[in-house]
Amino acid sequence: MKTIKLENGFVNYTIEENEITIDNIKVYEQKKGTGKILIEEVKKIAREKNLPIGLYAEPQDETINEDDLKNFYYSCGFELDADDCDGKLFIWK
Question: How far apart, in whole angstroms, are the C-alpha atoms of residue 64 and residue 27?
C-alpha cells in the first residue's frame, strides 16, 4: 500500500496489475478541496500506468454520510462499476 499525505489529509492506495485501488481517503477538515487534490494525485499515477481506479464508497467515520461520499466521487469523474451489486463500487477510467 502506498500513501499520499497532505497537511489536511491522506489517501492510501494499492497498485495492482489491472487496477489502482483506493483503500482509504481521509480528510481532516471538510470543504477545503483536499479530497479532490488527493484524487487528482492518484489519477495522475493511473494515467502514467494506464490503469483504471477502483474504490468502494463506504464512509469510514461520521464526518461524511454515504450519499455525500458518493456525490463526491461522481464529481471527481467516477462512475458506478458495471460489476457493482450494492451501489458502492466505483470506477474511474
Answer: 10
3 versus 82: which is more confidently predicted?
A: 3
| Confidence label for 83 from pLDDT (cuts 50, 70 and 90) | confident
Residue type, 87: G
pTM of the model: 0.94
HEC letters along the chain: CEEEEECCEEEEEEECCCCEEEEEEEECCCCCCHHHHHHHHHHHHHHHHCCCEEEECCCCCCCCCHHHHHHHHHHCCCEECCCCCCCCEEEEC
- Cell readout for 8 is 489536511
